[in-house]
Design brief:
Elements lengths: L6 E3 L2 E3 L2 E3 L9 H9 L3 E5 L22 H27 L4 E7 L5 H11 L6 E5 L6 H8 L2 E6 L2 H10 L11 E4 L6 E3 L13 H14 L7 E4 L20 E5 L13 H7 L7 E4 L7 E5 L2 H11 L1 E3 L10 E5 L4 E5 L1 H12 L4 E4 L4 E5 L1 H12 L32 H9 L32 H9 L3
Parallel strand pairs: 3-11, 4-5, 5-6, 6-7, 7-8, 8-10, 10-11
Antiparallel strand pairs: 1-2, 9-13, 12-13, 14-18, 15-16, 17-18
Length: 465
């Protein structure tokens, strides 16, 4: 195994090992501070991070506002308070070593307000901000204002070109690095474009080489690239280390840090990760963001798949093959299905999926009464956690709506991510993970369910394993 030479990241020489940031407090001040204490880069989540009571318990993020707009303001206040709190914890745990970064999603609600609030309230505690899930043009200007380095997350050279041309060239001195996140292998939301086939992954090396070539053209030959998504053993990436074609490269791990003693996820979640098999993590497009995402296939994803499969197209008047009348809703309004789809619908109703919910695509999905009530309750209780949400039709605009019908095929992402983080339920909540998570089960480092400390993991990574 080649030695890992230090890189200058956010103004300091550190090991080129980075804790990938996750959302909803899945990486927090404890875990990121522990990473920084090893002389590496720790990354806490700035997406609705936890605040704590005087006794050290997480403050429940309960919403009292009567309207979405009021609940949205409560959410922003929680996010800013939590981000500042986690920055303080990370700084204390780091013992002045390494670097502390904060991860945010550009498509999260009020991303700019949250960034300003946290960076203002945690001055001197945060060294860098990583930002993806969208095209974060303004991240450069915001970070430059506070003297903090920024790290855009991209999945292609084309995306970085657009960001550079529009905004980043004006604030190049604060561009600390570029995170290349593999759109097929990374956990959480994936940056697959319309020109890329989700079923046919492309090798990362040519894509990163293309990114470096572009960066050289922009005068960024020595700016580090963080490689993220699909990493496990560094010995498998030995050709990337000190490679003149790629330039300075750091390695960002998102999934492996979940199973450490400092990781804040539940013990049940950690045990689940240790027992996954290949193929248990899959790409899906159920997220209310509209992005593809990678998650562990469990009861939560299976139910969403079932909703999608219990679906038929309808018309409000007889058109073409849609001539079979079908009654929908408590008022028994008539819509028209094809003869074949009517038989399918009647079968689902007979099996207990008696509630037909309309989608924005002029289709009906069939769910149980209990699930229908849950969907409607979640849509009504929306707190506007995204800049635009397909599930509830919330949007961060003056009208506070996307102008489209809410889509019952999706789900409240805030609700389920808060639930899996703060409970033991790993079967009926969304569990994001990278596609290499199955390797926990065969990696001898985790034999007999061993859970290492962050320091042990960082030391292990440096051996190539």
């Amino acid at each position: 195994m080649k030695p890992l030479n230090p890189l200058v990241i956010s103004g300091r020489e550190v090991l080129p090992l980075v804790e990938g940031g996750k959302g909803i407090s899945v990486s927090n001040g404890e875990s990121s501070g522990a990473w920084a204490a090893t002389g590496s880069v720790g990354t806490f989540s700035g997406v609705n991070a936890d605040s704590y009571t005087e006794s050290g318990q997480p403050v429940p993020q309960i919403y009292h506002g009567r309207t979405r707009r009021e609940r949205h303001e409560e959410l922003v206040a929680y996010a800013i308070a939590g981000g500042i709190e986690q920055a303080r914890v990370a700084h204390e745990r780091s013992n002045g070593e390494g670097r502390i970064h904060m991860n945010v999603l550009w498509e999260m609600a009020a991303a700019e307000r949250v960034l300003h609030g946290v960076l203002e309230g945690a001055k001197g505690l945060i060294n860098g901000v990583t930002c993806g899930a969208g095209m974060p043009y303004k991240i450069a200007e915001i970070c430059a204002r506070y003297g903090v380095h920024y790290y855009p997350i991209v999945s292609s050279a084309r995306a970085f070109r657009a960001l550079w041309k529009r905004a980043y060239h004006k604030f190049c001195e604060w561009l600390g690095g570029v995170v290349y996140e593999d759109p097929w292998l990374a956990g959480g939301h994936n940056g697959l474009s319309n020109s890329e086939d989700p079923q046919h992954p492309e090798p990362p090396y040519p894509r990163v080489r293309e990114l470096r070539t572009l960066m050289v053209d922009f005068g960024l030959a020595t700016t580090p690239i963080f490689v993220a998504g699909g990493l496990w053993y560094l010995r498998e990436w030995i050709d990337w280390i000190d490679n003149p074609e790629l330039g300075p490269v750091a390695f960002q791990f998102g999934t492996r840090p979940l199973v450490t003693q400092e990781s804040p996820i539940s013990e049940t979640w950690k045990r689940k990760l240790l027992t996954l098999s290949e193929g248990d993590v899959s790409l899906n497009r159920f997220s209310p963001t509209g992005f593809y995402s990678s998650a562990v296939r469990n009861g939560f994803l299976n139910e969403l798949q079932e909703r999608s499969e219990h679906q038929v197209a309808y018309t409000v008047e007889p058109v073409g093959e849609h001539v079979a009348p079908f009654s929908v809703g408590a008022r028994g309004r008539t819509v028209f299905l094809t003869v074949h789809d009517k038989k399918s619908a009647e079968g689902w109703v007979a099996a207990g999926f008696t509630e037909a919910l309309r989608t924005p695509d002029s289709t009906l999905i069939f769910v149980t009464p209990r699930k229908a009530l849950e969907i409607r309750t979640d849509q009504i209780g929306c707190m506007g956690c995204l800049s635009a949400c397909q599930f509830s039709n919330w949007a961060q605009n003056e009208a506070r709506t996307t102008g489209k019908k809410a889509d019952p095929r999706s789900f409240c992402i805030q609700k389920t991510l808060q639930a899996i983080r703060h409970s033991e339920d790993v079967e009926y909540q969304l569990m994001f993970a990278g596609h290499n998570a199955f390797r926990f089960a065969s990696d001898p480092f985790y034999v007999n369910g061993y859970v290492p400390t962050v320091r042990e993991l960082v030391e292990r990574l440096q051996t190539g394993d």
